[in-house]
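**User:**
Make up any protein.

**Assistant:**
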Amino acid sequence: MAGINKVIIVGNLGADPEVRTMPNGEAVANISVATSESWIDKNTGEKRELTEWHRIVFYRRQAEIVGEYLRKGSKVYVEGRLRTRKWQDQNGQDRYTTEIQGDVLQMLDSRPERYQAGQATQVGAAQQGRNQYAQQSQPAYQTPQTQTSASQPVPPPIPDDGFDDDQIPF
């Protein structure tokens, strides 16, 4: 039987992303995300809190998006898998790091700070590479523009082909 290696994290970035470029030209971004849980200690009645830190790495286009749009304090939803990699420190000692390799990233903040400050720009480049359903559910942040109905082209009427939606068999 095959195993499942899946991690889901919802938390806040503890620092700005670290973005680097690999020798092959592809981007790599590392983020550190905090998740917290709180409870009331039954013995003392005090509120207790435990914070876990998660190291997450993104590659290629996702890494570019992370570097461009995320900042310390950003709330994110991440799906990925645990990966342990081996590396050597400055003394030549073998070291191991277990981190989450991010596959899915969802920004949960309502708007990045730069948009709230009135410096809005279109995010069309960030939408590239996403499927059409993600684009429909994630509107791009745009500068509000006032347009009159006269300046917008009117689409041609849809011809009546005699097909009724009630005829769909499912």
User: Anything to note?
Assistant: The two ends are 36 Å apart (CA to CA).
